[in-house]
């Protein structure tokens, strides 16, 4: 009996030999939920401000990027088999590529993500090839600009309006 075709097996996997980066050139800030709810702990966001998010819509997975400072929105379809973690990393990677392609003169770039797991892995020394690719892209833009990533509480007004206005209505 012939086995059924499994499209998710055709994709590359992110479980390859780990890679190492001992010198990330960007800063990651992760506040606690309590810091966010007190409103005294909101991160110092400077320069170009971007928000990233992974999403599952209509049985498809994807990633969204919103450049609040420049009014730029991107969405990426990642098919049916991407994990939530991969969606979040791809969103940050797409954001880094977009910042690099725009070549804007601002000195600071702030990127918000609601994924603590993605931000923790981007700070790590040992990582998967996908996370390493994202870290390298962030390091590339950090050559010209000061890059800071920060955790965004899911209920944050900017992220909530991004999700409502863009991801929920026109994503995928």
Describe this structure in words.
This protein is α/β, with parallel strands linked by helices and 172 residues long. The chain contains five helices and eight strands, in the order ββαβββαβαβαβα. Strands 2-8-6-3-4-5 form a six-stranded mixed sheet, with helices on both faces. Helix 2 runs parallel beside helix 4 (129-141). The chain is globular. Residues 5-9 and 162-172 have low confidence and may be disordered.
Element-level helix/strand string:
EEHEEEHEHEHEH
Helix content: 25-40%
CATH architecture: 2-Layer Sandwich
Distance between the termini: 36 Å
Strand order of the largest sheet: 2-8-6-3-4-5
Could you tell me the strand content as a percent range? 25-35%
Question: Tally the helices: what do you get?
Answer: 5
Helix/strand class: alpha/beta
From the spread of the alpha carbons, the general shape counts as: globular
The largest sheet, given as strand count, sense and whether it forms a barrel, is: 6 strands, mixed
Domains (count): 1
Q: Please identify which CATH superfamily we are dealing with.
A: Ribonuclease H-like superfamily/Ribonuclease H
Computed Rg? 16 Å
Q: Mean of the pLDDT scores?
A: 80
The total of beta strands comes to 8
């Amino acid at each position: 009996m012939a086995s059924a075709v499994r499209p998710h097996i055709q994709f590359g996997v992110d479980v390859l030999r780990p890679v190492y980066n001992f010198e990330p050139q960007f800063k990651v800030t992760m506040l606690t939920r309590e810091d966010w709810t007190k409103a005294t702990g909101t991160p110092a966001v400077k320069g170009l401000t971007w928000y990233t998010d992974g999403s599952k819509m209509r049985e498809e997975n994807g990633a969204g990027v919103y450049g609040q400072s420049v009014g730029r929105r991107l969405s990426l379809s990642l098919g049916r088999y991407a994990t939530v973690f991969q969606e979040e990393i791809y969103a940050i990677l797409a954001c880094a590529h977009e910042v690099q392609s725009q070549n804007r003169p601002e000195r600071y770039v702030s990127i918000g993500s609601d994924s603590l797991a993605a931000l923790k892995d981007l700070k790590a020394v040992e990582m998967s090839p996908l996370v390493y690719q994202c870290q390298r892209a962030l390091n590339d833009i950090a050559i010209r600009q000061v890059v800071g990533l920060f955790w965004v509480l899911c209920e944050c007004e900017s992220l909530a309006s991004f999700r409502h206005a863009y991801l929920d209505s026109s994503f995928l």
